[in-house]
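Structure (tokenized):
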């Protein structure tokens, strides 16, 4: 990269509950006239339903220009063992985690065209060659990548 070139990646120390601050910080280094990538891996599960995760995702995605991609993954409520473990964690933690159904997690990408293979268990999203024989029984997270058209 030469001096004065725009950064290829940037991270921001803002709370996801304040998407306006995230977007304002990002505008200092990212060109929102060109496609960008937004990575929300394990982020939406940090938000309770009362904090409006759909609204926050919509606000962040709404600010992205066409051609941008959003990667999202979060833990699902499909395992009784995991639900019990997260409940125990939440009982002892200031920062709680909120498991959701795969359908609800997918709803955070509303309005985006999902890249193949769509919303699937994270371990099954474009697995390494030769790993197709592995049963991902322990994977209780789903993920997808969406394109803003």
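Design, position by position:
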């Amino acid at each position: 990269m030469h001096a004065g070139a725009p950064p290829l990646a940037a991270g921001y120390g803002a709370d996801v509950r304040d998407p306006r601050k995230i977007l304002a910080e990002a505008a200092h280094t990212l060109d929102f006239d060109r496609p960008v990538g937004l990575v929300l891996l394990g982020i939406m599960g940090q938000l309770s339903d009362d904090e409006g995760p759909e609204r926050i995702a919509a606000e962040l995605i709404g600010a992205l220009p066409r051609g941008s991609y959003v990667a999202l993954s979060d833990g699902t409520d499909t395992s009784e063992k995991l639900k019990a473990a997260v409940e125990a964690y939440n009982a002892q933690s200031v920062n709680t985690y909120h498991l959701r159904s795969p359908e609800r997690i997918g709803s955070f990408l509303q309005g985006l065209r999902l890249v193949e293979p769509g919303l699937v268990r994270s371990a099954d999203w474009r697995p390494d060659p030769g790993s197709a024989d592995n049963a991902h029984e322990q994977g209780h997270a789903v993920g997808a990548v969406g394109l803003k058209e």
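Reviewer-requested clarification: The chain has a mean pLDDT of 89. The domain at 19-123+139-147 is CATH 3.40.50.150 (Rossmann fold).
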